[in-house]
Amino acid sequence: MTVTRAVSGPCARGWQATATVMAVFLAMVPSVVPELSAAESTHVLNQQLEAHWSDDGARFWYRRETAPKGHEFMLVDAVAGTRARAFDHAVMAQALTRVLARTIVAEALPISDFALVDDGLTILVSAGGTWWEGPRATLALQASTRVSSPAAERAPRPQQGAGETATRDRDRSPDGQWQVFRRGDDLWLRPLAGGDEVALTSDGSRADFYDLPVCWSPDSTHLAALRIRPGERRTITLIASSPGEGQQPESRVIPYAKPGDRIDTARPCLFRLADRAQIAIASGLMEQPWSIDDLAWNPDGAAFTLLFNQRGHQVMRVVEIDRAGQARVVIEERSPTFIDYAGKAYHHPLPTRREILWSSERDGWNHLYRYDAITGQVKNQITTGAWAVRAIERVDETTGLIWFTAGGMVATEDPYHIHHARVAFDGSGLTRLTDGDGSHQVAWSPDRRWFIDTWSRVDAAPEHVLRDGGSGKQVVALEVADDRALRSSRWQRPERFIAKGRDGVTDIHGVLWRPRGFDPAKRYPVVECIYAGPHSAHVPKTFRARYSQQAIADLGFVVGMIDGMGTSYRSKAFHDVCWKNLADAGFPDRIPWWRAAAASRPWLDLARVGIYGGSAGGQSALGALLFHPDFYHVAVADCGCHDNRMDKIWWNELWMGWPIGAHYAAQSNVTNAGRLQGKLMLIVGELDDNVDPSSTFQVAHALEKTGKDFELVVVHGSGHGAAETPFGARKRAGFLVRHLLGREP
Predict the structure, then answer these.
(1) Number of helices and strands in the chain (H, E)
(2) Beta-carbon neighbour count of residue 706 at 10 Å?
(3) What's the CA gap between 370 and 381, in Å, rounded?
(4) Cis link prior to 34 (omega < 30° from 0)?
(5) Could you give the C-alpha distances from 10 to 240, 673, 687, 689, 718, in angstroms and in order?
């Protein structure tokens, strides 16, 4: 074993807790973070378009790039469907030269904002830190005498959603008489008009405490709360070996629950305010909870509901509990594998309609359903078809409309392309609002009458069009990003490739990156960038001037990335391949994909195949050498979760299941370390608070015990993603060059 250690400079601690666990884990994928130099960023003009809308929502302007350091201002009339230069730029340059007392050129007007007022007859311009105004016809500018800034006038004001109560403390009763607070481990009541505080509970303890916030009934006579029985408090200790020159090492202890740990157990409690009595709740529908969330009283105050997710993630329920403590199931979702609560589950009560919007993969695809909140019956399936709802953008309870994104709506396109659509609660009026063979993102006008649709692919620069917000019909074309300078360089456009997966039927999608100066007469070793986490799909779909994979390709490789079975956003059957089977990592799809690509690309040399990845990708990269050494020969595994018993609880129990079974050990890279063939480099950051660094050290220990040779790189001061630090990236690149190209880097 060769051990390389480095002391890196200060760096941001990776993977801090964020609003959702998914946000953290999606950030783990270094492969989709573009590395774009300042020089290269000028090669593509108009990749982005920012609209500045008028007060009435009828017009907007944007800045159009004409050269790396040149631009002009465009004005779009959405009602008329026209697009033109906003003013005579040469005349504006003369006007600004006069008022700013310095030479201004028409190709680079220093305007940060402007607006048309007085029915479009007057233009206001912000330049040089001052607002100027003048007739639009002559552009004879002078300092503006208007009191308010047009930018401030046009700024969209925050809108309070229907049924929201502005900043009301949830622990205060709706009638304004009481506030609930915690004292020790119990709940207490404080009269807001003054007077003595009174205990609502007296049996709380550190081992079984009452929690905030509470949920008051609309008439302030009852309240619901959660009581928590704490689980074990597992921690891991990280050692900052080199906090500073001459400083002693520092230890950092962080909470870190792992699969199988005894977790906090929540259960609902119900209180009657008149006599401060706790009403017993029948708990049979809420046993072995992973979480209990979304407590909310029905509008009539006769009962409250909650969302129950059973540990193991195979049962989710909306449970209703009445004032007598009787519980009933309103909605129940079951799966023999898993319910993807972290990525697909959707629960949206519609109080005024007494309905609930719900997502389910019960028909094989992720779709929306409308439930009757009183009877618990499905009123209708809202969306249907061999495509998947990806996310809900907006729900309007008044109009009964839902705006959402979906993948696979256009059968002839890549199923991962995101399109935007709208549908009514009853399933009628399904309208795809975006068009164009690529992945779409939209930017709505403040009044949602219009939106700008921007779409691109890895092999197609962005296009921007204005569309009607109701029909999706194109109003006017805006820009097509200009990548001619990039294409005229030695830049290689990424290539999309599709091949059949393990079943010989399912299309597997991936991308190839070729090196600068690519010569089809040569043969290139291949390197796979792998990330097979089931929480998402990972192959990039939108245009970038440079992806991080290109940096590896430019060393003299062809790099590929593939979304195999077991990843998300396709059918439920496609996703279920990962169930208790993370070691699979889609390899039975990846290897045929590479062989199909090589069949028509003689420049791919499958006798020299490398692979690299981080986090879950690090686990898979090592797994390639353990389980598929006949195909993969060299691997770099960065901060891998090599044994799913060692990694974070939520991610691993969701995909590997609970209780912990023998399959955890059977699929562990530690357990299978003795199978290693090929060349391996392990990289780990000593301060990784996402994946326990011991996961890497334990697999290294197992390799030592079985007499296997490998390299271990410890990046000091680094957290998760140590291979993306300058030192880690250099070590990874050198290892691939040395063992696949046969030369010293």
Answers:
(1) 12, 42
(2) 12
(3) 6
(4) no
(5) 11, 33, 12, 16, 8
Q: How does pLDDT run across 443-455, given as a tens digit for each residue?
A: 999 999 999 999 9
**Contact in structure between 189 and 200 (CB atoms under 8 Å):** yes
Strands 431-432 and 439-444: unpaired
Closest to 338 in 3D by CA, of 663, 664, 662, 654: 654
User: CA nearest 75: which of 57, 61, 92?
Assistant: 61
Q: 319, 284 in Cβ contact below 8 A? A: no
3-state secondary structure 382-420: CCCCCCEEEEEEEEECCCCEEEEEEECCCCCCCCCCEEE
Distance CA 564, CA 589 (A): 6
Cα 30 to its chain centre, rounded Å, is: 13
- Phi and psi at residue 21, to the nearest 5°: -65, -30
Handedness of CA 714, 720, 722, 723 (dihedral sign): positive
> What residues contact 662, with CB distance under 8 A and at least 6 apart?
none
- pLDDT tens digit string along 326-385? 999 999 999 999 999 999 999 999 999 999 999 999 999 999 999 999 999 999 999 999
List the one residue out of 675, 660, 730, 670 whose CA is nearest residue 698.
Answer: 670
What's the 3-state SS for 152-206?
HHHCCCCCCCCCCCCCCCCCECCCCCEEEEEECCEEEEEECCCCCCEECCCCCEC
Listed residue (708, 738, 705) closest to 1, CA to CA: 708
According to DSSP, residue 633 is labeled -
Using CA atoms, how far apart are residues 727 and 373, in angstroms rounded to an integer? 57
Asked whether residue 2 carries a pLDDT value surpassing 50, the answer given is no
Element (H or E) spanning 229, and its range? strand 222-229
User: What is the model's pLDDT at position 444?
Assistant: 98
- Per DSSP, what are the bridge partners of residue 297? 304
* Three-state secondary structure call for residue 485: helix
β-strands 418-424, 431-432 pairing: antiparallel
267: alpha, beta or left? (left if phi > 0; alpha if psi -120 to 50): beta
Geometric angle at alpha carbon 424, from 420 and 426, rounded to 5°: 135
Q: Is the pLDDT of residue 15 over 90?
A: no
398-431 burial, b for 16+ CB within 10 Å, e for fewer? eebebbbbbbbbbeebbbbbbbbbbbbbebeebe
